Automatic annotation (TrEMBL):
GO terms for cellular component: membrane
PANTHER family: CHITIN DEACETYLASE 1-RELATED, GLYCOSYL TRANSFERASE-RELATED
Keywords: Hydrolase, Metal-binding, Signal
GO MF entries: hydrolase activity, acting on carbon-nitrogen (but not peptide) bonds; metal ion binding
Source species, domain of life: Bacteria
GO terms under biological process: carbohydrate metabolic process
Biological source species: Acinetobacter tianfuensis
Record domain NodB homology: where: 23-141
Leader peptide range in chain numbering: 1-24
UniProt name for this protein: Polysaccharide deacetylase
Amino acid sequence: MIHLKTQKFFISLTAIFCSFSINAKSIALSFDDGLNPALNAQAEHINSKILQQLKDQNIQTIVFPSLIKIGDAQGKQLIRSWGINGHTIGNHSAFHQNLNNPNVTAGSYIQSIQMADTAFSDLPHYQRIYRFPFLKEGNTAEKRNAVKSWLHENSYQLGAVSIDASDWFYNRKYLDYLKHGDTAKLERLKQAYITHLLDRANYYDQLAMLTLKRSPQHVLLLHVNAINAAFLTDAVRSFQQHGWDFISAKQALQDPLYQQTSQNLPAGESIIWSIAKTQGNTSLRYPAEDAPYETDNLERFNLD
Ligand SMILES: [Zn+2]
């Protein structure tokens, strides 16, 4: 009798465990751009604070530096420390150009990728994984296809994102409130920022369920910036409380989702957004993320 009860107990435990792992959504973090210590006195502090939090949370990510964003040797040293800490380093081009800009040619754009490759190839854990600046992949089929073919021929993996968000917008607010020493506003901003990130993650996960019929291994787009240096641990804990598991960026990018390429024009945005667009989803806003979309969320937290 006791034996039977014990067996039942283990069977129900297994059932709970299995249903939990099926329902858990997985997410990896990626950080774009990098900082230039010559232009930002806080660069080193921000960089090391983000790295420390990732270490404490045991999360392996990917950073996508752009030469024009990091400046010269000092900025590169900050990126090197990501590699030393075991994070993957990708390529985000030299000049951070918008490929949807009619003045940007495929030829000059490819040169910018090559320049960054030369500059970053000696960094630990550098890999040929490319992230398009602004997630813009070309305003014409010729440009889109020329750059994609070049990346493919040069053994580049695509560093697409599934979850686009506007941390850059909340970072502007953060710096503004910080400058004015408004601690009450900063606390409300933390809540607003985390709510925004969770909202975007859930939105793109639901869009994935509609378009892919599954929840993929997500990749979230963030930047190396002050708001993430301040609030990253709180954001990570909040995601975990809402059923998200953190996985390494390396693992997440193995999802076949990230091998798909945009069929739309203009091309780009989140890969899930892009597939939904190709499938004819008419409810999608463009661009996928922008400052005006955040007005309601700010009001919700009594911020302006
Ligand atoms: Zn960027």
